[in-house]
């Protein structure tokens, strides 16, 4: 039996308060081994994120079956109003399925997918939105540059460069040297010794973006998740090409650019906190402004694409682009 009229029917429309949402998946099942110091790393990450978000951005945390202490910490963040949304999963469903599921239920036109070991710096959202507003074909932007991702899932931007629609420059960015080595160290890669190493820079007006990105954290168009990302679940906990298949390649296959900021506005921490991370966090102040997003709403998203045709085009672009890249960058 129903008694009366559901009051929600009188005001059926739901307002969209934000234009950008950050989705962070958290999985810390214990405090030993690999995860011994991950809780402290996660706290640094979420605190830096809360401090650096403008009013037009919101946070969704997805707890992927962490231990009770970590889960309770996230619940307290939600109760305090520091995060807008919290999803608690009883079982670990894998990083990509947790990210994509939460992203598809969000309504904001820009979605940031991030690991819980990223330290965010001031103005990272402002600089990210500036790239989207300036370069219409932008599909994703990472908040820190990737010097060696020029030819990974970037065939769409390579084609645009070869057609002279955009200009690519190879220049050193000496101020990135220290931060770049910090990133390489965080993933146990060999450090860069050349302070004047070249970076692939797309120059559009007063905006500079590096071509390519890593995928520990990136901001992408929400529409891509409904038009180019596989519809079936990944069923993979982490790695095994899951990020490649569900994030990197879909952006590129359908003609969008994978870019990153040309300066470091975020940092990869790894699984162990260091003194510099606390220093950076302590120098952050809370943001309060609203940001205007100007995405091209008429962008076409084909639901199917001839993969064979794309592979042939990709192979041709790859060969032609080799002649465009200076030898000094390859070394």
Automatic annotation (TrEMBL):
<dbReference type="Pfam" id="PF00535">
    <property type="entry name" value="Glycos_transf_2"/>
</dbReference>
<dbReference type="InterPro" id="IPR001173">
    <property type="entry name" value="Glyco_trans_2-like"/>
</dbReference>
<dbReference type="InterPro" id="IPR029044">
    <property type="entry name" value="Nucleotide-diphossugar_trans"/>
</dbReference>
<protein>
    <recommendedName>
        <fullName>Glycosyltransferase 2-like domain-containing protein</fullName>
    </recommendedName>
</protein>
<feature type="domain" description="Glycosyltransferase 2-like">
    <location>
        <begin position="45"/>
        <end position="166"/>
    </location>
</feature>
